[in-house]
Amino acid sequence: MSKLCENIAYTHLAERFGTPLYVYSEQALTNAYQNYVNAFAGCQPLICYAVKANSNLSIIQHFAQLGCGFDTVSGGEIARVLAAGGTADKIIFSGVGKSIQEIAFALNAGIKCFNVESLPELDRINQVAEMMGQIAPISLRINPDVDAKTHPYISTGLKANKFGIAMADAERAYQYAAALPNLQIIGIDCHIGSQLLDLSPLVEACERMLALADKLAVQGIALQHIDLGGGVGIAYQNEQAPDLTAYAAAVAQMLAGRNLRLVLEPGRSLVGNAGTLLTRVEFVKQGEEKNFVIVDAAMNDLLRPALYQAYHHIENAEENGQPEMVADIVGPICETGDFFAQNREIAAAAGDLLLVRSAGAYGASMASNYNTRCRAAEVLVSGDTVREIRQRETFDDLIRHELACLG
Ligand SMILES: Cc1ncc(COP(=O)(O)O)c(C=O)c1O
Ligand SMILES: N[C@@H](CCCC[NH3+])C(=O)O
Predict the structure, then answer these.
(1) Which CATH architecture has domain 95-264?
(2) Given 7, 118, 187, 371, which is the most exposed site by the fewest CB atoms within 10 A?
């Protein structure tokens, strides 16, 4: 008996669409979004899904239909949101290196807010807005110097990180922005990192942001919103995911009596556990020191284990009574870093289908064509129905941009 995604067997999906295959549960996406809406109901938040976590158009469309806003970090992501039916007035634009073209594109679209990370960026947005005869709505991303206690590659709120404006420079930066004629200050924001399992750094960052907002109010700079950045971490293994209700209660208490709208930018916690990567076992190989389960997905499909030594739970789609062995589960790519798990207990034989869990966030969106491998197909399951939301690439897709340029 195969395990199911909603009402459909994973084995059926693999046979119909081939492997590697990303499978998402629509119900899980909806539930994750509703959890935020319900937990933060008291703060009337604008939830802006961080598109980078999974930028598939159908997933963006689903969130847009639920009323969600979007956090974007490139012109391409803004174009995706607009193409999928998201409205510009719910788009915020983050990132340390926005180009002139991206700023013009975002202004032209009429986005809600630019999250600005430096003084040169303030100047650039002001100049582009002036050239276009517009006023750009902005928020300053402040680096609160709070340790998010997460993997160093995805910790973003420390002095040593490239992100945001230092707390010590924040008031001066706001005064500077207030003097630029083509900017309108509407908010303050921070984002201290991803996969946070402890709420206290998030609460501490919020306290620091509010203390700053209070000082700004005294100086005549009144803000409309506070944006606390990404969402909480998720359970990949046996971690305890933070309690959203407790986070919301703490934020509601801090916001009480202040006229500030709350904005949140969750990514991972909206899509991470809604997605599974399906991969077929090609061979089981007994090396001199180790067993290897060689599968047809690779680091180009899901980079997280190679990049962050991240854990993903992996199981056989069918309980087939095979004995468990200890093995490295690896892809076909020519790199020793191309693994999904090391020294993992797994029951698997050639031809079996494996489920790589919690792959909905930073999976397909970080995929590449390394080793000239075709990008996997993606499907969205809703009850008894399934819809292909990205077609598998073909060899022709892979070579056509260069083929057209061959001398
Ligand atoms: C500016 C910004 N906002 C939101 C997010 C989403 O974070 P998460 O996926 O942890 O919710 C990120 C990624 O860490 C980010 O860089
Ligand atoms: N790509 C990272 C998260 C980065 C968040 C981007 N700000 C991950 O897979 O966990």
Answers:
(1) Alpha-Beta Barrel (3.20)
(2) 7
The one-character DSSP state at 195 is S
Cβ-contact 48, 264 below 8 angstroms? yes
In the chain, the amino acid numbered 158 is L
pLDDT in tens, 312-347: 999 999 987 888 999 999 999 999 999 999 999 999
Residues 349-401 have pLDDT tens digits of 999 999 999 999 999 999 999 999 999 999 999 999 999 999 999 999 999 99
20 prior amide bond cis, ω within 30 = yes
Give yes or no for residue 77 CB within 6 A of ligand 1.
no
Counting ligand 2 atoms within 8 A of each CB, the residue from 73, 154, 273, 309 with the most, and so the one to mutate, is 154
Residue type present at position 12: H
CATH annotation of 4-22+272-403: 2.40.37.10
Amino acid at 358: S
Q: Which value does ipTM take for this structure?
A: 0.99
- Six token digits for residue 321: 């009574």
Q: State how far the Cα of 272 lies from the Cα of 129, in Å rounded to an integer.
A: 37
